[in-house]
Amino acid sequence: MSEAAHDVTLSHQFDDLVQQRESAQLGMWLFLVTEVLFFGGLFMAYSLYRMEYPDAYAECSKLMNMSLGALNTAVLLTSSLTMVLAVMAAEQGRIKALIRWLIVTIGFGGVFLVVKAFEYHHKFVEHLVPGPYFTHEVHNREACQLFFSLYFAMTGLHALHMVIGIGLLSTIAWMASRNKFTPAYNNPVEISGLYWHFVDLVWIFLFPLLYLIGSR
Amino acid sequence: MWRFPLIPEQASTMALSVDMLTIFLLIVTAFFSLLIAGLIVFFAVKYRPSNKTVNREGAPDSHLLLEIIWTGIPLAIVIVIFFWGTGVFYQLRTMPADAVQMHVIGKQWMWKIQHPEGQREINALHIPVNKAIQLTMISEDVIHDFSIPAFRVKQDVLPGRYTKLWFQATKVGRYHIFCDQYCGTLHASMIGEVVVMEPKDYAAWISKGAFPTESGASSAQPTPASAGEELFTKMGCSSCHIGTGEGRAPSLVGLYGKKVVLSNKQTVTADDEYLRESILKPAAKVVAGYEPIMPLFQGQLTEENVLELIQYIKSLKGTSDAIAR
Amino acid sequence: MQSLDNTESYLGSEFNLKSWLLTFDHKRIGILYLLTVTFFFLMGGIGAMLIRLELLTPQADILQAEMYNRTFTLHGVTMVFFFMIPSIPAIFGNFFLPMMIGARDVAFPRLNLTSYYLLLGGGLFALAAILLGGVDTGWTFYTPYSSTYSNSNVILMGLGIFIAGFSSILTGLNFIVTIHKMRAPGMTWFRLPLFVWAHYATAVIQVLGTPVIAITILLLAVERGLHFGIFDPKLGGDPLLFQHLFWFYSHPAVYIMVLPGMGVVSEIIACFSRKKIFGYSFIAASSFAIALLGFFVWGHHLFLSGQSVYAGVVFSFITFLVAIPSAIKVFNWIATLYKGKIYLKTPMLYALGFIGLFTIGGLTGVMLGTLGIDAHVHDTYFIVAHFHYVMVGGTIMAYLAAIHFWWPKMTNRMYPEFFGKLSALLVFVGFNLTFFPQFILGYLGMPRRYHVYPPEFQVLNVFSSAGASILAVGFTLPLFYLLGSLVWGKKAGRNPWGATGLEWQTASPPPTLNFDKTPLVTEEPYEYHGEDMPNE
Fold it and tell me: In this predicted structure, what is the pLDDT of residue C3?
C-alpha cells in the first residue's frame, strides 16, 4: 500500500489506478442512468399528453423553428465528435490538443445555447409562453399550452445540463492547463466526455419529439 | 349495553360480500402472524443458552424443498385472494343498468346532491331502501372522495371528469358520509348523512319539494332534465343543434350511448364524459362532416348546469340518422 | 482536512470542528448523519405527539383545522424524507458497508460528504418552510390542491425534498460502485454479508426511483409558480398524472425504507442465534425480487383514484407477488432460530420484534392489495395502521436494533442492557397499543387526516393516544442511556458479541483507515457454530 500512497493521482481509498478508473466510469454510468429516469418523467408526461391531444400537438409543433432545431442538432453532434477527439488527445498525452478540442467543444455548446436563447425570445415575442400571455391563435388553447409547457420544461432542463456541461469542461480544460492529466491518469476527461455525450443524446430525442411531429 | 362494534353496520347489498372477504384475509393474517410469533417464542424458549441438553446438532443452513414449500403455499393463497378480491371489486364497479341516477358535486367543503326528481340536498342523501342508486360525481375544485362506510363504498371525486359509484341500501337508517381524500382546511368537516327510508317515506319526502326540511316544503324546483332543457334554449344550443339534423350542428336526439365518428376518423361513445367535454371544449372532438364552430362554454356553465344539460340530452329519445354526415 | 493517520481511531485523530465538518471518512460521515437524522426524528415525533393529543377528543382542542393539517404534513414529510429514507443506509450503511467488504472507505468519499450536506441543506429548506408557517397538503402533495389551491409554502418544502433526494441518489450510486469495485481479496459475491446485499438492492431503487420524484416536484413547482398547467384540469392537465409520477417513486421508496432494516435483521438473527443464516442465497435474491417487483405496484395507491379497473387489476396482482419474497425472508429467519442458541439481548429483541410486526404489517398490506377490501378502507386509519406497522414496527425497530448492535463498535462502550430491554418492551407495547386500534378505526370508517370525528370513534382513539405516550417514552429513553454510556458505559472491546463479519475483526472504535492491513477473506459468512456469546 505504501508505494501507491506516493502516487498523488491515486486517491487513498483505492488500491491502484485501474480500480480508480473503473470506479469512476461505473459511477458516471450510474449517474447517467439516474439522468435517464430524471428526463424520463418529462418524456412520460409528454407522451401521455400527446396521445391525449394528437391534433393539437401536431399543430403546435409546426410553430417550432425546425431549421434552428436542426442547426442545433448538427452543432451538438459535431461537439460530441470534438469531445471524442479531446478524450483521445488526453489518452495520448497531447495536452495542447486536449485543451484545444475542449475549447472547441465548449464553443459549440455556447453556440447551442445562443441559438436556444434566440428561439426562446422568438416564443416570447409570438405569445407562445404558457400562462395569461398565451394569445397566439391556436385551435386547442389548453393542449397547445401543455405542449409549450413541456417544451420549455424539457428544453430548459436540457439547457441547464448544457450549462453544467460547459462548466464541467471548462474546469477540465483548466486542470489540463495545470498539467493534471497524463496517459495514465485522465479519468476526469473521460467521464466528462460521457456526460457530454449523454446531454447530446437527450437532445437527439428531444428534437424529433418537439420539432418534427407536425409532419410536413 | 355498551356496544363495541368492530365493523360498521352492514347496510348495503355489497357489505356482506366485502366483510366476508375481509374475514378470510383476517384469518390468513392472524394464522401467519400467530404462527410466526409462536415459533419465535417457542424457539427462544426451547433454544435458550441455559438449556444445555437440547439437541442442537444437524441443523442445515439451506433446504430447497422448504424454500419451495414456503414460496408455493403463500403464492397459492394470494392467487385465491386475488381472484376473490377482484371479483368483489368488479361487482362494486359494475353499474347496474336500472339504477336511479343521481348527481354529486363536491366542492370545498360540501357535497351538493341532485335527485332526478329535482330535489337538491347539501351534505345529505335521502334514498329509498332496496333500490339501486348510481351516483355520477364531479368536483368543482380539488380531488375529494365520496365515502359511505356502512355501504362499503367510496370513490374519488375529480375535477374535470366524472367518476361513478353505485350501491343498494338494505337497511333503513342514517349512515355517515365522509370525504376520504384530503382536500384542504375543512376536509374533516366535509361530512354528511345518508338517510335510507322506506319507499313510502321516501315518496313523501320527495313530494315535499326541492329543499325538503323536517318542518315543511319549499318552492318547487325543476328536474335536472327540464332545467337542462331551459338552459339548452337560453344558451343558444337549440339554434344549431336542431332535432331534425338540418342545423349547423349534429342533432342530439337519441345520441346518448351511441357511437360517434369524429373528424379524425376515430369512433367514440357518446357517454357522460364525451358530452361534458363537447360542451366545455368543443374543439377537442369534432363530429365528422361538421365544422369546429361551436363556441366555448367553459366558464359560462357550472358543473350543475353541465349535468342538467346531459340529463336533458339523455331524455331526447328516438332514432336519428343525422349523428354524422 | 482529516489526516490519514491510521494509528488512531477515527474519533481520536483530530478532534476539531473543521475536521468533522470537512471529513471524508465514511465513519465520521455516518456519525454526522446520525446527529442530523436524530434531530429530524425528534421533530417528526413532536408532530406525532401533537396529532395524538389532538385526537383524544372528537372536537378540535389544541389544534384547529389549519394547524392540524400543517402538523400532519410536517410529521409525514419529516419522517419520510428526512428520517426514514436516510436512516439505516446513511448511518449504518455508510459506517459499516466499507468495513464489511474490507475496504478503507467508499468509492467516492468526497461525493459522500456532498451527500451529507445535500441532506442537511434540503433539511434546512424544509425547516424554513415549516418555520414560515408550514405546508398543508399532506406529504403526498396531491394536485390540484397543492399546485393551485393551497396557501402554504409548497415550493419551499418541495425544494427541500428535491435537494434531499439528490443526497439519496448519490449515496445509492456510491454504494453500488463501492460494492462492485472495492471488495477486499477473497470477498466474493456470495461471501458478502446480507446487510451488503440489502443495501445493494436499496441503492438500485434509490438510483432508479428518486429522479422521478425529483422531476415531479420540479413540475409541481413550475405549475405552482408559473401556472403552466401540467396537472390542473382547468388548464388541460391531468391530476392523475401527478399521482402516477408521485407513486412511481414513493412506492419503491418504502422498500428503500425497509430493505436495509431487513439486512440488519439478518446480521442480528445469525449472531444472536450463534448460527449460520438459513437460506443465504434466497434471502439475498429476495432483496432484489422486492426491489424489482416494487417498481411495478405503484398503482395500488390509485385503485379508487379514477384509474381504470383493468389497471387496478394488474397492479393488484403484482402487489400480491411482491409480498412473496418478504414472506421468504421471514421463514428463513425463523428457520435460522431452529436449533440455535438464542440470546435475547436488546438487538435481538428488536430484531425479533421486527419479524413479528413486519409480518402483521405486510399481511395487512396484502389485505390492501385486495381490490375488494381497499374499496372500503382506502384513505382510512386502516392504511395509517398498515404503514406504521411496516415502517415503525418494521424499519424503526430494525434501526434501534442496529444502534444497539453496533454502538459498541462505533464508540467502544456498552449500553446498559437493562435499559435497553426496558426500552424495547416499552416500544413494543406502546407501538401495538397505538396502532392496533387504528385497524379497527379504519374498518369502522374513520378517515385519515381528520382532526375532528364522530364521537363513536373516541374510545379507540384514546387507546391509540395512550399507546403513543408509552411509545414516546420508549423512543426517548435510548437518547439518554446511549449518551450516558459514552461516559459511564463499560468498555466494549473489539468484539463483545463474538460476531463474524470484518467490522468486528478491527478495533473498537475503528482506526481511520478501518484495518491495519487489507483483509484477506477466506471464510464463508456467518461462520457461527453454536459457540457461547463472550462474557456470558
Answer: 53
Given a cut of 80, whether residue B3 has pLDDT beyond it is no
Query: C494 in contact with A at a CB cutoff of 8 Å?
Result: no
The residues that bridge with B177 in the sheet, in sequence order, are B192
Please provide the average confidence, as pLDDT, over all residues in chain B: 90
**Chain C residues inside the 8 Å CB shell of A35:** 211
Cell triple for C429: 407495547
Nearest CA distance, C390 vs chain B (angstrom): 13
Q: How far is C21 from chain A (nearest CA, A)?
A: 19
Give the three-class secondary structure for C527. coil
User: Model confidence over B47-88: pLDDT tens digits?
Assistant: 999 999 999 988 899 999 999 999 999 999 999 999 999 999
Does residue B2 register a pLDDT over 60? Answer: no
B173-179 β-sheet, strand order: B124-128, B192-197, B173-179, B144-148, B153-157
For residue A6, being part of any structural domain is answered with no
Q: What's the one-letter identity of residue C406? A: W
Question: Is residue A121 situated within a structural domain?
Answer: yes
Confidence label for C535 from pLDDT (cuts 50, 70 and 90): confident
Asked if C339 reaches chain A (Cβ–Cβ under 8 Å), the answer is no
Q: pLDDT tens digit string along B105-152?
A: 999 999 999 998 888 999 999 999 999 999 999 999 999 999 999 999
Residues of chain A neighbouring B281 (CB-CB closer than 8 A): 140, 142
pLDDT tens-digit profile of C265-285? 999 999 999 999 999 999 999
Q: CATH class for domain B224-315? A: mainly alpha
Q: pLDDT tens for residues B192-205?
A: 999 999 999 999 99
A55 interaction partners in chain B (CB closer than 8 Å):
264
Does the distance separating the beta carbons of B184 and C149 come in below 8 Å?
Answer: yes
The CATH number that applies at residue A148 is 1.20.120.80
Tell me if B283 and A139 make a contact (CB, 8 A cut-off): yes
**Are A34 and C208 in contact (CB < 8 Å)?**
yes
Residue C121 identity? G
State how far residue B29 is from chain C, nearest Cα, in angstroms.
6
| C497 cis-preceded (ω within 30 degrees of 0) | no
The CATH number of the domain covering residues in B100-207: 2.60.40.420
Pair C205, C173: CB distance under 8 Å: no
- Residues C72-110: tens digit of each pLDDT: 999 999 999 999 999 999 999 999 999 999 999 999 999
Which of B78, B155, B176 shows the shortest C-beta gap to C320? B78
Q: Contact, C74 vs C46, CB < 8 A? A: no
Q: Which residue of C has its CA nearest to A33?
A: C208
Q: Which residue has the cell 459522500?
A: C112
Q: What is the pLDDT of residue B221?
A: 72
**CB–CB of C212 and A35 under 8 A?**
no
Give the contacts of C170 (CB within 8 A, at least 6 positions apart): C111, C112, C114, C115, C118
Chain A: residue whose CA lies nearest to C246: A41
Are the CB atoms for C461 and C56 separated by under 8 Å?
A: yes
pTM of this structure:
0.93
Q: Domain range for residue A131? A: 16-211
Question: Domain boundaries in chain B?
Answer: 15-47+61-93, 100-207, 224-315
The count of structural domains within chain A is 1
Q: How far is B277 from chain A (nearest CA, A)?
A: 13
* Closest partner CB to C454 (pick from B71, B84, B176): B176
Length of chain A: 216
- Mutation site, C146, C373, C444, C531, interface B, largest B CB count within 10 A: C373
Among chain B residues, the shortest Cα distance to C364 is held by B29
Q: Is C10 exposed, middle or buried (0-12, 13-18, 19+ CB in 10 A)?
A: buried
**ipTM for this prediction:** 0.93
Task: Enumerate the domain spans of chain C.
Answer: 17-505
Homologous superfamily of C17-505: Cytochrome c oxidase-like, subunit I domain (1.20.210.10)
Substitution target in B13, B23, B40 with the highest count of C β-carbons within 10 Å is B40
